[in-house]
Design goal:
It is a single chain. The protein is an alpha+beta fold. The chain has 2 domains: 160 residues, no CATH class; 198 residues, no CATH class. It is 31% helix and 32% strand. Strands 7, 8, 15, 16, 17 and 18 form a 6-stranded antiparallel beta sheet that branches. Strands 9-11-12-13-14 form a 5-stranded antiparallel beta sheet, with helices on both faces. Helix 1 packs antiparallel against helix 3 and helix 4 packs antiparallel against helix 6.
Length: 381
C-alpha cells in the first residue's frame, strides 16, 4: 500500500478593522465564516452551502465574575513598591476576545503542523533507509515492486513536507485595516513619533520605586527607582500579519506590548497574552528630574546639579570628604494603566521625543474614543 498523509486544516479567521467617521467596526472571519459575541460566549460560525457545511462552535464562555483590581502600588488597598501589571488572563477586553481566540487557533494549528512535519521527516528517513537496504540485501532486485513502491513513498513524503511547510508559513491571522484619510493621518503621526522614540539613547522600564529618607541617605533624591534597559521598535506578532507593523514596547518584568491601530496586545508567550482596546488605556506623559550617578545619555539635557551628599537646604554636606557634584537631568516618562490591571512605566533619555509621542497618542486615542461613541449611538457623519 502506498504511503499517504492527509491533514484537515482549519480555516484561520482573519480580522478586519474599519476605522471611519461612522465609528469602528471589527469583523472576524473569512468568507462563509464569522464570529459572534453574546452573553453566553463567543462562537465561530461556519457556513459553506455549496459543500453542505453548517457549523457553530463555541470558543469561549462569558465573563460573569468581576475583574480583580490591579495588584500594584497605585492600588491603596494592596501596598507594593513594584511596578507590574496584573495577571494577564484577566486583562483582555471583552470585545477583543474573538481576536484573541483567532490568534490562539493560529498558534495551535501551527504547533500541530510542526509536529506533523517532524513525523513526516522521520518517516522519510525510514523510507530512504528501507530503499537502500532493499538493494543491499538483494530482495529489491528479486522483487522490483518493493523499491518501486518505496521510491513512490519517498516522493509523496517529500511533497507532504513541502505542503506542510507552506501551510505553516500561511498559518496566521491576517489583520486587514482600513483607515479614513483623516484618521490615517493621525495614526501616521503617532507612528512617526514612535519611530523617534525608538532612537532615544536610553529607554528604561521602571520596575520599582520607593521612598527614601533624604536625611538618613544625605541624598537630594526622595525616591529610589529600579529600572532596566529595554528596546522599542516596529515589530509584529508571529501569529498576526498586517500591512501596519505594530509598535513594540519591551517589558523587563512581564508581557511585552504590541500597539496596533485599535488595540494593544500584551504578549508573554504564544498561549499567554491579552488584548486591550486602545480606548481603555490611560497614558500619562510627563518628565522627571533624575539625579544621575552614572553616565548622562548623549541626548539628555542637564537641568541642574546637586551634591553626592547634600543637606536639606541643598548645600553640600561638608562632613563628607571629597564630596562632588552630580548632574540632575530631565528624562521623559510614560505610564500606561487600565482599570483591569495594566500598569507599566517607562523612562526615556530624550524628553522632547517622549512629549511628542504622548501628545500624538492622546490625539489619536481621542479620535478612537469619538469613533466608539459614534458606533454606540448610531451617529454617522
Amino acid at each position: 500500500m502506498a504511503w499517504s498523509f492527509s491533514k484537515r486544516i482549519k480555516i484561520i479567521p482573519g480580522v478586519h478593522l474599519n476605522l471611519s467617521k461612522s465609528g469602528i467596526s471589527t469583523s472576524i472571519g473569512v468568507k462563509g465564516t464569522n464570529m459572534t459575541f453574546g452573553k453566553s460566549g463567543t462562537y465561530l460560525n461556519t457556513s459553506i452551502p455549496s459543500l453542505g457545511i453548517h457549523n457553530r462552535q463555541k470558543l469561549s464562555g462569558s465573563r460573569t465574575n468581576p475583574l480583580p483590581q490591579p495588584y500594584n502600588q497605585y492600588n491603596p488597598t494592596v501596598p507594593s513598591n513594584n511596578i507590574f501589571s496584573a495577571d494577564i488572563h484577566e486583562i483582555t477586553s471583552q470585545n477583543m476576545q474573538g481576536v484573541k481566540e483567532a490568534i490562539i487557533l493560529a498558534h495551535q494549528q501551527r504547533k500541530e503542523l510542526s509536529n506533523d512535519l517532524l513525523k513526516i521527516h522521520a518517516t522519510l528517513g525510514t523510507s530512504r533507509l528501507k530503499y537502500i537496504l532493499s538493494y543491499m540485501f538483494l530482495y529489491g532486485l528479486i522483487k522490483k515492486t518493493i523499491p518501486g513502491n518505496l521510491k513512490k513513498d519517498i516522493e509523496a513524503q517529500k511533497e507532504a513536507i513541502k505542503q506542510t511547510k507552506n501551510e505553516i508559513e500561511n498559518c496566521y491571522v491576517k489583520l486587514e485595516i482600513d483607515l479614513d484619510p483623516e484618521i490615517k493621518e493621525k495614526y501616521d503621526k503617532l507612528q512617526n513619533a514612535f519611530k523617534k522614540l525608538t532612537t532615544c539613547h536610553r529607554i528604561w522600564d521602571v520596575t520599582s520605586a520607593h521612598f527614601q529618607d533624604r536625611v538618613v541617605t544625605r541624598s537630594s533624591a526622595s525616591t529610589l527607582v529600579k529600572k532596566s534597559d529595554v528596546k522599542f521598535s516596529l515589530k509584529s506578532l508571529v501569529d498576526m500579519k498586517s500591512t501596519y507593523e505594530s509598535m513594540y514596547f519591551q517589558n523587563a518584568n512581564g508581557a511585552d506590548l504590541y500597539l496596533y491601530p485599535s488595540f494593544i496586545v500584551m504578549y508573554s508567550n504564544k498561549s499567554n497574552f491579552a488584548i486591550i482596546g486602545l480606548d481603555e488605556i490611560d497614558l500619562q506623559q510627563s518628565f522627571v528630574r533624575f539625579t544621575e550617578t552614572g553616565t548622562v545619555p548623549r541626548d539628555s539635557r542637564i537641568i541642574d546639579r546637586t551634591w553626592a551628599k547634600v543637606n536639606k537646604n541643598g548645600s553640600p554636606d561638608k562632613r563628607f570628604k571629597g564630596n562632588y557634584q552630580i548632574p540632575i537631568v530631565q528624562y521623559g516618562e510614560i505610564r500606561l494603566r487600565t482599570i483591569t490591571g495594566l500598569n507599566e512605566e517607562y523612562e526615556f533619555s530624550n524628553y522632547e521625543f517622549t512629549q511628542e509621542f504622548g501628545t500624538a497618542f492622546k490625539d489619536y486615542q481621542a479620535t478612537i474614543k469619538q469613533l466608539n461613541k459614534f458606533k454606540k449611538s448610531g451617529v454617522t457623519s
